[in-house]
Write a structure and sequence with these properties.
The protein is mainly α. Helices cover 85% and strands 0% of the residues. The chain crosses the membrane at residues 59-77.
Length: 101
């Protein structure tokens, strides 16, 4: 393998790591926001509505909240990685990549 090819592959690998890291960070932020946004009405409805009190045990409440958080994480992480990859492909991959992302 030539030096030029190896350098190009190393740069592509670094960009891929950077894109995935950005996706993880954005997904984690979205999951935190979604957890709070889902927990407040779920727990409030348990206190206020008699139907929710009789039909939603604590496991069901946790399942509702964690499902919303997981969905938000994966949707936002996927969209962030795809947007970053699209941006890098239009730029031709000429970005400054940190040495240790």
């Amino acid at each position: 393998m030539s030096t030029v090819t190896r350098a190009a592959l190393d740069q592509k690998l670094a960009m891929a790591k950077l894109c995935s890291h950005e996706g993880v960070v954005a997904g984690a932020k979205a999951a935190v926001v979604a957890t709070v946004a889902a927990a407040i009405p779920t727990l409030a409805s348990f206190k206020i509505l008699p139907w929710a009190r009789s039909n939603l045990n604590p496991t069901a409440q946790a399942l509702i909240i964690s499902t919303v958080a997981g969905a938000a994480y994966f949707i936002v992480a996927d969209k962030t990685v795809l947007a970053s990859a699209r941006k890098n492909s239009f730029e031709g991959g000429n970005i400054n990549v940190p040495k240790n992302p």
